[in-house]
Design a protein that fits this description.
The protein is of the alpha+beta class and 213 residues long. Helix content is 17%, strand content 40%. It is an enzyme of class 2 (transferase).
């Protein structure tokens, strides 16, 4: 579990792609202070597992599901990425609950500077429209952000100067892909209130145990 508060910007040192899998080596400094094999690191919002590490770099594997469902397949040597270690149970919590499991990868539709802020409009799939609302939370490339506006097929976020400086999102351009994870609580609420799904599951339970023919 992560908070969406990016700890540092890392750099891709090496990628080895075999089919739909990638072994990726990332340079970092701050997150290397207390790193162990098996640790979870969010890379542009994607939860990856540390398989080995050196003094200033770590290695992780990208499996086919992650390859196809995220933007990690587009990373090249020199690419900048957002990095965050898994949250500590007793630590300060400044963002929102981010699982590191990306829902979809969508493109930036519009980028606009408004005084000290950068407004970004991101494409939104119809199937996820019900999970996002103004003033709610969304993780974009692993960064916890507040939704400004939701329209037909898009949502808009704003980057304050600090977020623009400390994450890779401000360097993105129109048509660049970003990883999107919608609010975890919203997904649970929808699942719990979907009475039709509960009824189908109950019907299946009865049928599986011989109460229905």
């Amino acid at each position: 579990m992560f908070t969406g508060i990016i700890e540092e910007i890392g750099t891709v040192q090496r990628t080895i792609q075999r089919g739909s899998t990638i072994q990726i080596v990332l340079n970092a400094t701050k997150i290397m202070d207390d790193i162990h094999i098996g640790d979870s690191i969010a890379v542009n919002g994607v939860c990856l597992t540390v398989t080995e590490f050196q003094q200033r770099s770590f290695t992780a594997d990208v499996m086919p599901e992650t390859f196809h469902a995220t933007s990690l397949s587009s990373l090249k040597v020199g690419s900048k990425v957002n990095l965050e270690r898994a949250m500590l149970a007793g630590g300060r919590f400044g963002g929102h609950y981010v699982s590191g499991h990306v829902d979809e990868t969508r493109k930036i539709l519009k980028k606009q500077r408004v005084e000290n802020a950068i407004y970004l409009s991101v494409a939104l799939s119809e199937q996820y429209q019900h999970l996002i609302l103004p003033k709610g939370s969304v993780a974009v490339d692993g960064t916890s952000l507040t939704v400004m506006e939701v329209g037909d097929g898009y949502f808009t976020i704003a980057l304050i100067p600090h977020t623009a400086e400390e994450t890779v999102i401000s360097e993105k351009s129109v048509n660049d892909p970003v990883n999107i994870e919608y609010d975890l609580f919203a997904k649970y609420v929808v699942a719990f209130t979907d009475t039709s799904k509960r009824e189908r599951n109950f019907h299946q339970l009865l049928e599986n145990n011989g109460f229905l023919s």
